[in-house]
Q: What sequence folds into this?
């Protein structure tokens, strides 16, 4: 449980100050909302309400609009991700080679579904579109580490490295 | 503007070159069905109901957004087109909760009308619409299981009103219209203007009804139930009964209210006359001191909440005078109660308003100077019409009756409160006479009447130049207030109404979409009704209302007195 | 800021160093070790290899004998990480960091070839010493990919060495904008992003509109699952895209470009950033380019995970900072695009061709490929095929050549069933059409489309109903939700397919699918919606009997649909060892030792474990 921080710790004033800076830097840019959301997510790991409200006020748009944009794009997330974010590529090349079975195994082992985070905040699973490593299909990515030519049998051993 | 020659269903027409196929088709007497389209407000081609065939274009095209051009050849009624439209409509219906019988929009639903028109058969596809009702707002109920994602509400809320309380969120099958973070409208920056309700084609956005509460009060023997009706109501209520537009139905409305069982039937216009006395006095004081100018009107509750959210720095400029509705409520529970020896806790004040935001105003805790809420229940014009129908009253046949005397006496100035420019005109009528200390004959100020988004005038009152502005629609108000905030304009008095056109176009008024589609100038007709009534009334200036004079003499002392301040003024808070 | 003369000097001196990479003899003794730094090879630790190489060279003081260059994609991703050592052009595959020691000792120091790292040509079974000896490269024509695997993409000098920014120099100094457009028109090049609209015509439209501001956008939002052509170009040769955008800017009268690139492509984004900074430093971007008054700047905008943003109007809406929803056309972007201004949008691969067209001429380009589909096309070949990777072939080549000659056929002796092109907008091409020439119009005729270049091969184990369902699932989750035909219609189609794959299909389902599909094609707002039914329509067209088997016989011929599969024990093969019963997680298998066992279909959860464990291959899936 230690991994999961409450939002008040994460939204410390230093980060919020940095967010103000980011907003300020983008104020005159046309179409700044998405670049700002990218940077804010980089900063906080996700896009909680307080962050979106600051962006809305700073860029002069409504919170509902910011929320609408943030929920449109699958890269933006409103929930903090696990310490280890496991992406399973479900691009066509991976799919025809059985990526769905890898995902199934992963979900079974961690007891969560794609899009969810384990209770201890350690792992989250994400089914993603083509990560572009089709030569290695099926592909699973944990944070920045890529695991290629996956089979369901390999999942348990790989997870063990992170436990 | 140029002209182009186009062919629609074999008919050659000459159309202005800035039209869409949909608009041009009207000239050829073809009514292409639409759903998401809203003239000047929403032309996004999203719903695919207005599909037509354009020669040379791939696939079918949305007529609402397809611009005409020289030599364009359009078909609107081939079997292929009608099949495609029907198929799309069936898909929409599959995701729409079809509890039509219990829906408040039953028989008045654009989707129902489309299904009828296109001859949709039995349900073809099973749906997945889940109940998702948000009824925490004081004014508006959202039911996304009925939403067809036409986005008219978003266009109105975001682009016209610049409130942005709701927007489209998520995508694909998960997309929905919602306040940020799926909160309730009641927790959002919604200002309750109800313009979204006014444009919703289905029952996804509806007025929060207080009908049952009012019936309960009427049927409660212990309660002395009084009703007051806002000026804009009489300009539109007749529409619900098929009466001709352009004439107020004041007399029939009073007759109906009496038959429904209200103990007293009063006129909010009386309250409006008090508002003019208080606000006019406030204006004269500020004009003299030069402080907190411009004075900005505060009778539109949507505008007030909008200002609290977006222009906190202008709060000192808002008139502290309560709205006519609340002023009147406070007087009913104080002066009226005392005079008629009624326990104010036994008085139940119902206000009939053209406005959904009045329901929010009614709940403001600060509006209870007597120790009791100024108003107990607000119902809209639409709700009143429903209640009249529920009662079995044949409204259209009623003989005219008068408001209860003496508390129902009101001036013509108060009547025009219901339209954009009316408050300003009423105030000027009184302020000019007070300052110049003589009777003025020219009391119709054309400068503040009409359709322009921002109306302004420079008047000379008692040798002093007074610059005034009138604005309606919050998008326009926002523009003007930014100028005021940044010191770029120097008005002394500004009237703001939240709804484009003023109260007559409020979110609680009878639906205008179908009439407007048929080419009726709804706003113009309703405005005409009020100006006509103003002309007919014996007193056309608030300070001439004999009853107002009497209350000041007997009870309030004078406009702006301590007592008047306690009862008839309020304060605002940044949100 | 460099003068034309200075740039020429850089070209000349760097060319001397790099010319061995294009087979030109060089006096230099120094070997160049090119290591693929594309995403595929990076995923299998090529950066570590580069690091080890650099360390080894330092420690062994080999600085005069060898240098390491991280390049873009060589294409043969299946055999990654890939390394080429010039001048001998030795082609090492599946290199591991541990191999570095041996490579340095044997190859660099002693001049031997490390044979165990050479690839074997699948057809001839012989070791390939250079990449040209591999069937994979023989039929390729690398034009858009000309610099991928040849230059260090993070060094503008190497791009310059191969005539980089010469085309921009030529158009600015010698050509009028209309001559540029003419050349592009005459080359016949069509958009490589999918629909194949003639690029020159797009430019001409925008050039003819009067406006105070116009934009050039590059579509690098490669969302087609199973496609990575554009990513490879950006990773391997970012300057070719920048140069082409500037040329386009000059042609239509724009001074501002945007590259809309997927945030999921961090390597590409980083290389683009480096390339833009270098180009500005050299003055080939910015103001007064080549001493003229032409100004051109490029900004990068990151996509955020929405396939629909590959659609041109949606892409522009997204750059404007809104939900990436398409809007109706007309007005077309060439008239009213980004921020309401005339805009052209070209795909990465299209742009990568432009400098070559300018330098070598329209006729040279149109001599490649077919009459109506000129030039080459890059495909990302994946799925059930031996040589997974990136290939660039002349238009008009047959699918058979790609699958068998270049791709090396299907692994494990399985049969080719279909190839899917065009991603979620395309269709499946069956074996009977293997000899169809690959060009825009032929593909359209057989119910598929060129698309951006994903080419996924499927074998007999792939169920076509399941594949159709896979693509619809993709469309559903990527639909923007603006119009009902796409938002709701594709979901209804998916529901039907889902029923069919679960054995709940009904008579008439195929017809229902077809009817819905036709209405969606006609009614949807944008290209994504209009083409969403294609995978279903094409699989129904070519594999109708497979649909019928699911519906009528409740049987999945490919054995892929879990609910329709039954595991059975072949009594003749079963020796009664009880291995299956002991491994069955739900105790669905029972029997007496030494006599045939039985599977209770009611209990079986179809996990397939018994089949894996059976030592006698007695368990069959039907």
A:
């Amino acid at each position: 449980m230690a991994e999961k921080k409450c939002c008040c710790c994460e939204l410390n004033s230093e980060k919020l100050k940095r967010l103000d800076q980011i907003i300020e830097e983008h104020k005159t840019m046309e179409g700044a909302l998405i670049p700002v959301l990218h940077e804010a997510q980089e900063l906080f790991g996700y896009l909680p309400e307080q962050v979106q409200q600051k962006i809305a006020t700073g860029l002069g748009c409504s919170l509902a609009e910011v929320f609408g944009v943030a929920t449109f794009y699958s890269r933006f997330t409103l929930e903090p991700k696990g310490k280890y974010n496991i992406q399973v590529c479900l691009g066509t090349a991976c799919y025809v080679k059985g990526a769905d079975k890898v995902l199934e195994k992963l979900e079974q082992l961690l007891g969560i579904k794609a899009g969810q985070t384990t209770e201890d905040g350690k792992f989250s699973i994400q089914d993603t579109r083509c990560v572009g490593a089709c030569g290695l299909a099926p592909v699973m990515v944990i944070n920045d580490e890529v695991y290629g030519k996956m089979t369901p049998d390999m999942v348990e051993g790989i997870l063990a490295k992170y436990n | 503007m140029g002209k182009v020659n186009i062919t629609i269903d074999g008919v050659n027409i000459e159309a202005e070159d800035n039209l869409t196929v949909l608009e041009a088709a009207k000239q050829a007497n073809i009514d292409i069905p639409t759903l998401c389209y809203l003239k000047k407000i929403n032309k996004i081609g999203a719903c695919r109901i207005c599909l037509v065939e354009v020669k040379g274009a791939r696939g079918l095209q949305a007529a609402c957004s397809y611009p005409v051009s020289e030599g364009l050849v359009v078909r609107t009624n081939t079997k292929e087109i009608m099949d495609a439209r029907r198929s799309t409509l069936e898909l929409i219906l599959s995701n729409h909760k079809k509890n039509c019988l219990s829906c408040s929009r039953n028989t008045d639903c654009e989707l129902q009308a489309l299904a009828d028109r296109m001859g949709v058969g039995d349900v073809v596809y099973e749906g997945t619409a889940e109940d998702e009702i948000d009824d925490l707002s004081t004014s508006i109920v959202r039911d996304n299981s009925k939403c067809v994602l036409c986005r008219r509400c978003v266009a109105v809320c975001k682009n016209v009103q610049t409130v942005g309380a709701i927007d489209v969120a998520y995508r694909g099958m998960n997309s929905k219209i919602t306040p940020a973070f799926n909160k309730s409208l009641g927790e959002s920056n919604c200002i309750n203007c109800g313009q979204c309700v006014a444009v919703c084609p289905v029952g996804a956005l509806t007025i929060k009804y207080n009908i049952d509460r009012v019936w309960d009060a009427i049927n409660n023997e212990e309660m002395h139930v009084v009703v007051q009706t806002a000026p804009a109501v009489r300009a539109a209520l007749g529409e619900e009964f098929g009466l001709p537009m352009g004439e107020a139905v004041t007399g029939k409305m009073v007759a109906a209210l009496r038959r429904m069982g209200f103990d007293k039937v009063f006129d909010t216009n009386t309250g409006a006359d008090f508002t003019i006395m208080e606000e006019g006095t406030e204006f004269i004081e500020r004009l003299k001191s030069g402080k907190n100018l411009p004075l900005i009107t505060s009778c539109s509750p949507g505008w007030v909440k909008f200002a609290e959210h977006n222009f906190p720095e202008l709060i000192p400029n808002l008139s502290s005078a309560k709205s006519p509705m609340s002023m009147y409520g406070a007087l009913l529970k104080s002066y009226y109660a005392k005079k008629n020896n009624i326990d104010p806790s036994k008085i139940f004040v119902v206000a009939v308003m053209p406005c959904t935001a009045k329901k929010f105003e009614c709940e403001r805790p600060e509006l209870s100077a007597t120790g009791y809420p100024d108003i107990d229940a607000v119902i809209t014009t639409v709700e009143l019409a429903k209640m009249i129908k529920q009662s079995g009253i044949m409204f259209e046949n009623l003989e005219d009756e008068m408001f209860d005397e003496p508390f129902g006496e009101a001036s013509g100035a108060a009547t025009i409160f219901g339209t954009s420019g009316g408050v300003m005109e009423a105030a000027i009528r009184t302020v000019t006479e007070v300052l110049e200390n003589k009777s003025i004959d020219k009391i119709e100020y054309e400068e503040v009447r009409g359709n322009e988004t921002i109306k302004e005038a420079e008047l000379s009152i008692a040798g002093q130049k007074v610059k005034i502005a009138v604005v309606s629609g919050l998008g326009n108000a926002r523009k003007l207030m930014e100028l005021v905030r940044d010191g770029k304009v120097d008005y002394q008095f500004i009237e703001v109404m939240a709804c484009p056109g003023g109260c007559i176009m409020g979110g609680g008024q009878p639906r205008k979409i179908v009439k407007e589609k048929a080419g009726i100038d709804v706003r113009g007709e309703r405005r005409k009704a009020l100006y006509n009534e103003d002309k007919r009334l014996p007193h056309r200036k608030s300070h001439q209302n004999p009853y107002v004079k009497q209350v000041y003499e007997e009870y309030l002392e004078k406009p702006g007195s301590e007592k008047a301040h306690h009862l008839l003024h309020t304060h605002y808070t940044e949100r | 800021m460099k003068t034309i003369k200075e740039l020429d000097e850089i070209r000349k001196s760097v060319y001397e160093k790099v010319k061995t990479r294009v087979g030109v003899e060089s006096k230099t003794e120094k070997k160049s070790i090119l290591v693929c730094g594309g995403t595929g090879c990076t995923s299998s630790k090529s950066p570590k290899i580069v690091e080890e190489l650099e360390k080894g060279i330092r420690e062994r003081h080999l600085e005069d004998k060898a240098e390491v260059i991280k390049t873009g994609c060589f294409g043969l991703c299946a055999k990654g990480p890939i390394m080429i050592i010039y001048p001998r052009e030795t082609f090492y595959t599946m290199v591991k960091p541990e191999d570095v020691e041996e490579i340095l000792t044997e190859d660099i120091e002693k001049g031997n070839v490390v044979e165990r790292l050479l690839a074997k040509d699948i057809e001839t079974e012989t070791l390939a010493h250079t990449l040209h000896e591999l069937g994979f490269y023989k039929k390729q024509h690398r034009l858009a990919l000309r610099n991928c695997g040849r230059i260090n993409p993070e060094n503008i000098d190497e791009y310059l060495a191969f005539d980089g920014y010469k085309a921009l120099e030529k158009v600015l100094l010698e050509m009028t904008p209309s001559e540029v457009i003419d050349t592009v028109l005459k080359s016949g090049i069509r958009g490589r992003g999918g629909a194949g609209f003639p690029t020159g015509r797009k430019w001409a439209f925008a050039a003819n509109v009067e406006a105070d501001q116009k934009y050039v956008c590059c579509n690098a939002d490669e969302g087609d699952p199973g496609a990575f052509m554009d990513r490879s170009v950006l990773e391997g040769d970012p300057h070719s895209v920048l140069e082409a955008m500037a040329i386009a800017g000059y042609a239509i009268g724009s001074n501002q470009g945007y590259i809309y690139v997927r945030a999921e492509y961090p390597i590409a984004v980083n290389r683009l950033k480096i390339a833009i900074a270098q180009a500005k430093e050299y003055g080939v971007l910015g103001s007064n380019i080549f001493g003229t008054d032409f100004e051109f700047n490029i900004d990068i905008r990151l996509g955020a995970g929405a396939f629909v943003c590959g659609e041109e109007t949606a892409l522009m809406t997204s750059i404007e900072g809104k939900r990436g929803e398409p809007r109706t056309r007309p007005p077309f972007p060439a008239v009213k695009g980004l921020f309401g201004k005339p805009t052209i949008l070209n795909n990465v691969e299209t742009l990568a061709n432009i400098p070559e067209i300018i330098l070598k001429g329209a006729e040279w380009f149109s001599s490649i490929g077919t009459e109506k589909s000129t030039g080459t096309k890059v495909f990302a070949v994946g799925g059930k095929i031996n040589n997974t990777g990136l290939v660039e072939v002349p238009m008009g080549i047959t699918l058979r050549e790609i699958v068998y000659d270049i791709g090396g056929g299907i692994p494990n002796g399985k049969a080719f069933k279909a190839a899917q092109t065009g991603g979620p907008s395309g269709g499946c091409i069956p074996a009977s059409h293997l000899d169809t020439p690959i060009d825009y119009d032929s593909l359209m005729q057989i119910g598929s489309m060129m698309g951006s270049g994903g080419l996924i091969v499927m074998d007999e184990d792939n169920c076509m109903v399941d594949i159709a369902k896979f693509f619809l699932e993709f469309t559903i989750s990527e639909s923007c939700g603006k119009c009902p035909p796409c938002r709701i219609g594709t979901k209804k189609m998916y529901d039907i397919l889902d029923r069919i794959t679960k054995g709940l299909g009904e008579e008439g389902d195929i017809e229902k699918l077809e009817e819905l599909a036709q209405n969606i094609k006609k009614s949807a707002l944008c290209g994504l919606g209009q083409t969403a039914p294609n995978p279903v329509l094409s699989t129904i067209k070519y594999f109708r009997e497979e649909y019928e088997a699911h519906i009528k016989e409740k049987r999945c011929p490919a054995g892929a649909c879990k609910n329709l599969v039954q595991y059975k024990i072949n009594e003749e093969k079963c020796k009664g060892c009880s291995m299956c019963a002991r491994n069955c997680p739900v105790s669905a298998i029972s029997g007496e030792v030494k006599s045939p066992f039985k599977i209770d279909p009611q209990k079986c959860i179809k996990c397939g474990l018994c089949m894996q464990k059976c030592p006698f291959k007695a368990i069959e899936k039907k």
User: Anything to note?
Assistant: Residues 534-552 of chain C form the longest helix (19 residues). The mean pLDDT of chain C is 93. Chain C touches chain A through 53 residues (CB under 8 Å).
